Amino acid sequence: MRVGILGGGQLAQMIAQAGANLDMSFKFISPDPKACAAPYGEHICADYQDEQAYQQMLEWADVFTYEFESIPKSVVESLEKKLALLPSSKALNVAGDRLKEKRTFNGLGIPTANFAPVDSLESLQSAVEQIGLPAILKTRSEGYDGKGQAVLRDVSQLEAAWQSVGQVPCILESMVNFSREVSIIAARSKQGEIVYYPLTENHHREGILRLSLPLQNDPYQQQAEKLAKALLDELDYVGVIAVELFQVGESLVANEFAPRVHNSGHWTIEGAHTSQFENHLRAICGLPLGKTDAINSCAMVNIIGKLPREEDVAAIEGARFHDYSKDEKPGRKIGHITITSEGLSGEAFNANLKCILQLVGEDPELR
């Protein structure tokens, strides 16, 4: 099977790595000459609107997928008319616009924070009167890892916040008083079969995911699966999806969804019977979906900005080092470390996880 991927970053890299055992080959379109996925297939270094590059892909590929949401809408819709592109442009269009996303959730009966559209400083003032403070101003498109956002706690901050997000279409969301952040990752096949991974508890700092902990037999697993299923069926979705949720009291409130493999699912490479990356390929290529059970206790720690020494990671029992081959840069995800509990006591697993957190510059008590 020949898979064309829009994007050449670490998610494309890990998709291609998973495809090696499925006898698949890959081509990537990315304008980045240092695309870290390039060693795992053929890299077409071109802009995402380059028609000649897409013609090369169309003549070669059996199916298209993508690793991020900000692909030009016109490109996606044009490709979809000529070759299977999965997940579909419908899912991409909803996920790429926070206002559409929130309205889709609410239309399915999935609770969210209170929200209002913002298109000007005047409409921001009106939205604050409607939503109240504190609240978060977010750009409707783009923006991730805390970018394109401003926290508002006082009306005196409105003008500066509007300037800081670039005076582009936004959404104002009420602050959610949550007890924890979780995500549910699922894969849906072309036939509508759905498999779910264990609910994952996520810990952020400065808007960037730092630690993910899959939780076996979590009491909110079924509630999360029900919300994800409603969205998957509504979008007639094919591939892997991640739905980010807040736990508020005894209910789950939707934050956003990603129509792709997701950072909070990186633990599945070593920690699940079938990784999210392999199941994404299985879904879009029409293969049977793999088992999603966690093999044992597991955790994933992101490496932000600066890589630790590989030998220091190797010295921690149960740890696996994933280097994305990206240049070091403050605030940039350049790798991750997973740790599994195979052969370890619970006490030893927790101690080793603390060592990993400390190694990458995080608070060892982050959990």
Automatic annotation (TrEMBL):
Catalytic function, reaction form: 5-amino-1-(5-phospho-beta-D-ribosyl)imidazole + hydrogencarbonate + ATP = 5-carboxyamino-1-(5-phospho-D-ribosyl)imidazole + ADP + phosphate + 2 H(+)
User: Protein biosynthesis as a keyword?
Assistant: no
ATP-grasp domain boundaries: 102-285
Could you tell me the gene encoding this protein?
Answer: purK
**UniProt KW ATP-binding keyword:** yes
Q: Which organism is it from?
A: Saccharophagus degradans (strain 2-40 / ATCC 43961 / DSM 17024)
Member of which family?
Belongs to the PurK/PurT family.
Query: What name appears for this protein in its UniProt entry?
Result: N5-carboxyaminoimidazole ribonucleotide synthase
* Entry GO terms, CC: cytosol
* One matching Pfam family: RS_preATP-grasp-like
Which NCBIfam families did the record assign?
Answer: PRK06019.1-2, PRK06019.1-5, purK
